[in-house]
Every structure is written in structure tokens, then in C-alpha cells.
Amino acid sequence: MDFDCNKAGESSAKHCSSICNEGTLIQANTLIHCGKAKKWNSLNKFNNPESSHGSLPRVNDPKEDGETGNDATASECSVMCFTDLPSALVCEVLARLDPKGLGVVSCVSTVLQTLATDHQGWKKFYCERWGLPNAPIGPLVPGGTPDGRSWKALFVDREFQSRSFMGRFSVDVLRGHNEDVRTVYLLASANLIFTGGHDSVVRMWNMEEGLLIDESRPFGCTIRAIAADSRLLVTGGSKAFIQCWRAIEGASHLFHISGNGTNQNSEFRLWGHEGPVTCLSLDSTRIYSGSWDMTVRVWDRAEMKCVQKFMHADWVLALAPHGNTVASTAGRDAYVWDIGNGELTTIISNAHVGNAYSVARTHLAGVLFTGGEDGAIRLFDVSEISDDENIKPAATWLPHSGPVHSLAFEYPWLVSASSDGRIALIDLRKILTPLNSSKRRFRVKPFDPSTVEPPQRMLHGFGCYLFSVGIGADRIICGGEDGSVRVWNFSEALEIEKKAQALRSLRQENRMRRRKAQVEMNANGRRVDHCSVAMKRNPLKGDKSVTWQIKRPISDKVKS
């Protein structure tokens, strides 16, 4: 996201600005021209060392001591600036702005630029869209970011990267599995890709180079689910255990999944399910697992014990946690459970015609996405607790001709993989709209379901079933029945687009130059000498020995 500011720190003397906040109008007049320009001294309390508000930064005018009539002028004008307000009120007003508004405010003056850039609203904007960034191993500075940059810088970079998925890309193919790849997981913060499938081996790849880093021993079962963060890697399969690896501090690639020459305490298993584990997920304090034993189990990461169990009426096929709730699909129904009290808050009956194979959630609001056997992708608004089982979808997409086996969300893109061998990308910025409420920042925009736009992009060319898909800041990965893993790299899309735009501008400029030369020659009543025009555009630099070749075929017949 780019914020343009022509003259930061300058304000117009002919206008006044106002900020309206839920019925409260705060009038903030800009500096009024009272007398000569040199007497436009600071008329607010930022420049007054005796200011009662003293919590905001003070900007001194170097001419303040030399002007004696400023106090009288200020009293006559009775001007009050927005920055004269108490710092708590200023921060509260800034907290009600959206990212674009906060960026515009930072261009008004140096004082507001400091306040808007360091405002904690940027952290809120980032976490609402992408969640907390994965922290590295080791202590973190309280309130800081993992790489030490400001939250505004993180937000702007991530928003800029989200535009790349409509640009050009390159495709890498990772080969190593002997049978179907049933699950893939992208850990972009560590540049790692994890894959597993029917060959019962978990493999770890380098995302940038596409090289195999490490692989586990065979577990004797199909690997159906993988989840990871910077501290823990978990996998599940046809056998009823969850295989776990702890990250090793100081290791170049976080995990040693082969187990050779490492501490045995870094690898362990969780037992409790009575059937194949089909889905896994992690957050900072819990592990979530779903199984064909019709249960979703919640595990405490500190004690590695099951602390909650949710019973379903059918096999659990997918799950997605968000905050203190977890959504799951079993059969053709979708559920939302409250982890705190263990109660079912929402049930969506017959979400699909056939089984609901996949589910995804956002960091924004109570929005649930499901993909099913009917090839449909549906959006449900579950922000309010409802006893009604006949919840209607807010939007429906039909991009596939086969079952949708996997969904992944990375703001603002929803990605789906299907057995028809295609991947669909859906942009949700027009559907999720911001609110002015501080408690609930986003909601589903009211619209006619029949007018929903189709997916913005479709990726083709697989010719095989696709079972799993993942998305990062500028990567999309998928695995299918051919045993290969494909990685779409969009990291250079924006740079390529900039170069293409510059080339188009150059061509347009050349066309306009030639057209102008044509008009001038016609105005002078002369015939256009194309050779002269070419000579002007391509000077010979004094080398007159160069012969201009005529681009016409030479005939074998010569007239006598």
C-alpha cells in the first residue's frame, strides 16, 4: 500500500478540517493567516512549554524567541489545533481510522507522522488480516515484531505482496514421493515446505531453492495431515497417533525429522484417537486434531495432554481454529465449537450436497468457508451464535467440476484445490468490508448472492487429482496423485509488471514522437522522408561508411 504525500508538514491556511467520531465533532482549524507570514508561529500548545497536556512531542519554532507579539496574535485569533487535544483522545481518534486514513494523516505534519507511524493500530490491522507473525526461537522484545521492523512496515510490505497473485509466475516441481501426495504445508517464515502421502514418509523442502532438506523414516501409514510453526511440527495419518517434533535451537532448518544425531526428547507421539487422524492445526497454546473416530480433540501444548473433546455424528474431515472457537466438518454438516465451555455454538446442516471435505477461516471476522463433494465453495457468516440449523450461505462459487478437497486462506485470497486438477483464486476484498466498531472490525458486505463474481484466477495444467493446497505471502503449493509437489512463485510478479509498464510507456512515447514528426512535415508541405526520420532516430555517429540495406528480396531477374 502506497501513501503519497506531496508536501508533508504543510497545511493550507484557507481551510479547516474536522474529525467526526461516532457523533462527536471535533473542530480543528488550521493556522489562520493573522498578519504577516512570519507571525504564523505555533498557535497550539505543542510549542508552549507550559502546556498542561505535556504527553505529546513538542516541536519548537526557531523564531519563537524573536517574536514578541505572537501571544497577543494567538489570543486574538483564538485558534485551536487538533494536536492540542490530550494524547489519549488523539490516539483514540487515530484508532478509528482505517489503514488508508492513518497513512493520509501521517502526511499532514511531522507531529502527526510520528504519532501515526508508531500507532499500535498498525499491529491491529496486521493481526486482523494475517494473524501474529511466527516468532523465532528465543526471547522476543515485548510489543515488538520478530524481525525488529515497525508494524507499519510489516503491514505495507504484506499488503504490497498480496497484489502479486494476479501477476506472472514461475512453477517449480518437487519430486521425491513415490505415491500420492495427500497433504502439504507451507511454513513461509522459515522458508520450509512439508509434504506427506501414501508412501508414509514426511519430507521437508527448502522453499526458495526447491531442494530436499530432510525426510523421516517410514511410519507404515498414509500421512494425511501436517501442521507446523516455528516451534513445533505435527503430523497425523492412518494410524491413530500424532507424530511431533520440537524445533531445535540453533539448527539451520528448525527440525531434524530424520532423527539422526539429535536429542530423542525432540521427537514424541500423542495417543488418544481411535481412528485415522485426518486434519491438524496449531495455535500458540493448543494443538487441534480431527479423526475418523468422529471427534475433534484439543491438546495443551505445555503439558501435551488432551484437554477437550468434541463429538460429531460422522467422520471428521477438516477443522479450522480461530480465537477461542474451532470449526469442523463431518459428513455434510459444519460445526463451530466454543473451546472455553465445550459447547456447540453453531451447526450448519447440509452445507453441501455430499460430504464437506474442507474448511477455512479468516483472521478478520466470524466467516467460515467450506468446500464439498459437489464442487462448490460456500461462505457462511457465523459471527452470531445461532440455534438455527438452516443457515444460508452468504455467497457460493462453483469453479470446479469435481470435489473440493482443500481450502487455504491468506488475506485477501481464498485458494481451493479440486479433483478436476485445477486451483481457483478468489479475491474477498469486495465481500469483507471494514466497520467503524472497535470490537468487530469487519463484516460480510450485504449483496445479492446471484451477483457474486467468479474466481479472479484459475491455475490449470495438472491432469491429476489435487488433494491439498497451501498459500503464503507470494507462494502457492499443491500436491496430488502424481506424487509431485508444485510451487507457484509470484515473488517477481510485481517487478515484472513494473518493467512491462515501463516498456509500454516507452513504446507509447515513441509512437507519439513519430506522430508529431509526421504532423510537422505535413504542415511544412513536404513529403515524409522516412529515411531522414530513421537517420535522426538512429544517428551513425560520424561513421559514413555504413551502408543502409534495403529490406526487399532481390529478384533473380535483372532488367537490361
Automatic annotation (TrEMBL):
<feature type="domain" description="F-box">
    <location>
        <begin position="79"/>
        <end position="125"/>
    </location>
</feature>
<dbReference type="InterPro" id="IPR036322">
    <property type="entry name" value="WD40_repeat_dom_sf"/>
</dbReference>
<dbReference type="InterPro" id="IPR020472">
    <property type="entry name" value="WD40_PAC1"/>
</dbReference>
<dbReference type="Pfam" id="PF00646">
    <property type="entry name" value="F-box"/>
</dbReference>
<dbReference type="InterPro" id="IPR001680">
    <property type="entry name" value="WD40_rpt"/>
</dbReference>
<feature type="repeat" description="WD">
    <location>
        <begin position="174"/>
        <end position="215"/>
    </location>
</feature>
<dbReference type="Pfam" id="PF00400">
    <property type="entry name" value="WD40"/>
</dbReference>
<keyword id="KW-0677">Repeat</keyword>
<feature type="repeat" description="WD">
    <location>
        <begin position="270"/>
        <end position="309"/>
    </location>
</feature>
<keyword id="KW-0853">WD repeat</keyword>
<dbReference type="InterPro" id="IPR036047">
    <property type="entry name" value="F-box-like_dom_sf"/>
</dbReference>
<protein>
    <recommendedName>
        <fullName>F-box domain-containing protein</fullName>
    </recommendedName>
</protein>
<feature type="region of interest" description="Disordered">
    <location>
        <begin position="47"/>
        <end position="71"/>
    </location>
</feature>
<feature type="repeat" description="WD">
    <location>
        <begin position="476"/>
        <end position="498"/>
    </location>
</feature>
<dbReference type="InterPro" id="IPR001810">
    <property type="entry name" value="F-box_dom"/>
</dbReference>
<dbReference type="InterPro" id="IPR015943">
    <property type="entry name" value="WD40/YVTN_repeat-like_dom_sf"/>
</dbReference>
<dbReference type="InterPro" id="IPR019775">
    <property type="entry name" value="WD40_repeat_CS"/>
</dbReference>
